[in-house]
Design a protein that fits this description.
With 217 residues, the protein is an all-alpha fold. It has eleven helices and no strands. The mean pLDDT is 88.
């Protein structure tokens, strides 16, 4: 159910973004999708680490990000990197945070990972990279919904102030935490195939691009 809601609200967001930009309510509803995907990444890390398949998870995310960049570039025609690269950095950061390597090496690697979103324009920036870490600590390890809510609000507020209020609607990502907790509780009610999103994300971006071309004729 987590991935289902993530995909549903992402579609709502993209319909608003690419076809009805003046319909702010669609963009507001779309903000709900981001925490759901962030949780899916945190959960994917947790189970991949448990099963010893982290390397495969990294390769899958990298391949996903590279493939998705093609339709993403066609839609935006700019140098921004898609959300796949954001989640890839989140995964690498989670690995380093729980690594047993010497602390100096870990600190250096963590610093480099956190600096990359500040150097290269990726979707959601450092805010997006940190969100799965927040949910991993609060909702997967601690099972503390209130902590997830408060810390996600603090994270949003910090970046809202640092970016001079560039994305005021992102506050609704924080407000969606209770809905995320409910979806987790009933997650087994709707099960999507494991690789569903790897295919769905780039495919739906390409479909949107083709629809925009047809509408422009």
């Amino acid at each position: 159910m987590v991935k289902f809601f993530a995909c549903f609200f992402m579609i709502v967001d993209h319909i608003g973004c690419y076809f009805f930009p003046s319909a702010i309510w669609l963009r507001i509803l779309g903000r709900i999708s981001m925490p759901f995907f962030a949780y899916a990444i945190a959960r994917g890390y947790y189970y991949s680490k448990k099963k010893g398949t982290l390397k495969r998870y990294i390769k899958n995310l990298l391949l996903f990000a590279l493939i998705s960049q093609i339709p993403y570039f066609l839609l935006h025609n700019e140098g921004t990197l898609n959300i796949g690269f954001t989640w890839l950095l989140s995964l690498l950061l989670l690995i380093e945070l729980e690594s047993k390597e010497p602390w100096i090496k870990r600190l250096l690697t963590i610093t480099i990972i956190c600096c990359l979103p500040l150097i290269f324009p990726i979707s959601y920036g450092l805010y997006g990279v940190l969100f799965p870490i927040l949910l991993y600590v609060t909702m997967i390890k601690k099972k503390d919904i209130l902590a997830a809510f408060y810390l996600s609000f603090f994270l949003y507020l910090s970046f809202f102030l640092l970016t001079n209020g560039s994305n005021i609607y992102q506050i609704f990502a924080t407000l969606s935490i209770p809905l995320l907790a409910l979806a987790i509780k009933y997650d087994n009610k709707i099960n999507l195939p494991k690789r569903f999103f790897y295919i769905f994300y780039p495919a739906h971006l390409m479909l949107i691009y083709l629809l925009k071309l047809l509408l422009a004729l």
